[in-house]
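Subject: sequence -> structure tokens, single chain

Hey, anyone have a minute? Need the predicted structure for the following. Not urgent.
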Amino acid sequence: MFALRIAALVAAVLATGLTAGVFYAYAISVMPALNRSDDRTIVDVMQKINVVIINPWFMIAFLGAVGFAILAAVLHLGKEHRATLVWIGIALALNVIAFAVTAGCNVPLNDQLAAAGDPAQIADMAAVRADYESAWVRYNVIRAVVHTMAFLVLCGAMFAAGVQQGKSQAAGSSATQGVAAFTASAGFGAPHAAAHRLGRFAE
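Reply:
Had a minute. Here:
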């Protein structure tokens, strides 16, 4: 069970990190480069990006950031995993917030840009760009920051899970040693000790 819990947690960490990385790349390279381009270029490029980004590789990470975090939280239910569950819960909340920013802000802007039609046929390209670029960049920075925070919190959850497992193993080892010591002191742990007692009784 420990392996399954850790696997779900690793999947959540990886999905969240990849998603944060995609949005980070937009923030530090793609959008600054397009900002230096003319109106038609940014509209044309972003229309194309918004189509090709909907692919299995991105969607697994994007949806997995929330989905795997939920799975990890379910697998860590129980008072013995409470410390880890708190970390996961915080990360899940952050991922849900970032997901909401994408779904409620960036996606509608992308739909709006797509509805503008073929860049070659747009009459007022500057207006289309003005309605899209600054708002999209702002929301992208927000979701990148929030997903990054979730990634860091999930790393904390991994650490907490490791500490908890170490404590559990130490407690189990101590209990085993205690039982062994009691058994030995009672004369049940060593056959030769029992035989020695029988020999003394016979004398």
